[in-house]
Amino acid sequence: MRLGKMNLAVHGLAGDIRQGNAYYEDLHRTTGKFDFVMANPPFNVDRVDKDRLKDDPRFPFGLPRTDNANYLWIQLFYSALNDTGRAGFVMANSASDARGSELEIRKQIIEARAVDVMVAVGSNFFYTVTLPCTLWFFDRGKRNTARTDQVLFIDARHIYRQIDRAHRDWTPAQIEFLANIARLYRGEAPENLHESAELMAQLFPGGKYTDVAGLCKVATLAEIEAQGWSLNPGRYVGVATREEEDFDFKARLEEQNEELETLNAEARELEERIAENVVKLMEAITTFCSAPSSGLRARCTPAAPTWWVLSMAYRCCSSNSKPPIVVWRPPSLAICATTRTPFHIYSGPMP
Prior knowledge:
Blueprint (H helix, E strand, L loop, with lengths): L1 H9 L23 E6 L30 H11 E12 L8 H11 L3 E7 L11 E7 L10 E6 L5 E4 L2 E3 L2 H14 L11 H7 L12 E5 H6 L7 H4 L11 H36 L3 E3 L5 E5 L5 H11 L9 E4 L3 E4 L4 E7 L4
Parallel strand pairs: 1-2, 3-5, 10-13
Antiparallel strand pairs: 2-4, 3-4, 5-8, 6-7, 9-10, 11-12, 12-13
């Protein structure tokens, strides 16, 4: 609760935050009340007691038979909206194509004319997981518009800013660009607060929406039905057409061959350097093994690393039919788990 209140305060908002289990409790009596819903629910939650959810009006399209709460969350967001309410939430990619009872629920939501926009998001947008996701947007009021039998699909997987090796995000200009696609689709004027006008002019000349291969596509309910009621943007937007490159194939091949020869020469040089370093390392380590009745002994110089000493212990048991397992027992004893033979590891001269 404290984290939720802090989040509101940071954004200059006020709200009524209560602690409870959203699956079983409707603390705010949400059904049909909200103008807007924005959420980032947990993905693929299991072990929800569906017996406690029977006859709950927040699940108007029924309960999924699979042990997965994705379509419970989706219905919670849908049922919380009033007749003109809009929702935007993050959902696991799998929900867009889920089969069985989840498909039946998705079909009903689509036929209710609630799904307005679907956006595919690439991987590494979360801080803790690398999973890609999908943004769902509902508009309960679109049934009274020209978009009633349409859904806008946007594939934004190729749009991102690389923060570091494992994290990506969207710049303000990229967010504005994606939002402007939806605005054009809805017949609204685009914004240019973050300098997205140039890109919009390239792809949508005249300020009018048009399908762009590999980016966006407005699909009809008939097209969605033909795709098995899938809401995966990749099934609709297609692949962007690539312009043919005008280049001299022979010249390009010669350039790449020269680059390959350079890389091969560097590889050979590195191989020789590694071999020289291995020889020097072996010369610096003096080791011998013997097998007296009291057990096996290994001697090494102080420079010998532990992994090397253990590898020598393996060699001492090489006559066994099974590969030995060496168990290190500090500070100076290793035991071959195959023969139970102790290895006394000494640094310096053999006692």
